[in-house]
Amino acid sequence: MTQPSPELPPEPRESRPFHIEDALAALIMAALCVITFANVLTRYFTNISFAFTEEFSVFLVVVMTFIGAATAFTRGHHLAITFLVDKLPARGRLWQRRFALACGLAMFGVLTWYGALMWWDDFETGLTSPGLGVPQWWYTLSVPVLSALVEFRLLQLLFKRAPA
């Protein structure tokens, strides 16, 4: 287990530890449980499967992944291998943190851009989903929007916790 470095001041506590992501994650998890349980019961008692539930469940899992990424970044709970970083002086660790946040911003920026292109392509072509037959862009819109949410959280971290 790693200990906080004595050379760096402790990171400030969140003034609002509850974010909208917490409520969304709870709602999505509840919806996933209800949908999956209903599908299992229906399949058990009638030998009929609601095929459309898989499509909707996959969409909810994708949304949950992005929300989880935003929350993990905000709380500093992403997996990090800090063996070498811990050996840096305080200023080096600060710059490494800024670099890591900038890399995250770049990656999610690319994901936002290409997600928006994918959404626009689905919108223009009128592609529909196989299970429900709804426009596919309803699902693909979540990629650029939620990637932008993660970018917003990364920007908050970059400017909030870095000393002036």
Automatic annotation (TrEMBL):
TM helices/strands, residue ranges: 23-45, 57-78, 99-117, 137-159
UniProt-recorded Gene Ontology molecular function terms: transmembrane transporter activity
Any GO BP annotation: C4-dicarboxylate transport
Topology of this chain in the membrane: Multi-pass membrane protein
One GO cellular component term: plasma membrane
Protein keywords: Cell inner membrane, Cell membrane, Membrane, Transmembrane, Transmembrane helix, Transport
InterPro entries: DctQ, TRAP_DctQ
Main location: membrane
Domain Tripartite ATP-independent periplasmic transporters DctQ component: 32-161
Role according to the record: Part of the tripartite ATP-independent periplasmic (TRAP) transport system.
Family named by the database record: Belongs to the TRAP transporter small permease family.
Protein name stated in the entry: TRAP transporter small permease protein
Organism (species): Ottowia oryzae
